[in-house]
Design a protein that fits this description.
mainly alpha, rod-shaped, two-stranded antiparallel sheet
């Protein structure tokens, strides 16, 4: 939300606000994009690690036909399948590689709407 407001301040205030104010707001937008991109990369990496863990667990199941290791691995696989762990932000958004694309698409759409409304 803060990023969208910042973009609106930049577009509307280009002729009215001092340059240092616009530059500082622009830096805030860039920092927010970098932070959200980092969160998306971490979430995507987490998702890949869960998939790798499941793959390795399945390989271990093929090696052991019985015993305590097989039971623990089966428990781990069932936990991953029944309740897949995800990296989420307050339970609202799932942070994965797609969050970066969604962020840019929302921002671009909002920017186009603001530009259209400011030049009517």
């Amino acid at each position: 939300m803060w990023t969208m407001l910042s973009i609106e301040i930049i577009i509307v205030g280009i002729n009215r606000l001092p340059a240092y104010y616009i530059a500082s707001v622009s830096m805030g937008i860039i920092i927010n994009f970098i932070l959200i991109s980092a969160i998306g990369l971490l979430g995507g990496t987490f998702e890949n690690e869960v998939k790798t863990t499941k793959y390795i667990s399945n390989k271990i199941l093929t090696l052991y036909s019985e015993g305590p290791i097989r039971k623990k691995v089966k428990t781990l696989i069932s936990m991953i399948e029944n309740n897949t762990p995800v990296f989420s932000i307050y339970g609202i958004w799932t942070a994965d590689y797609g969050i970066i694309v969604r962020l840019f698409s929302i921002t671009t759409t909002y920017l186009v709407v603001l530009l259209q409304l400011s030049y009517l």
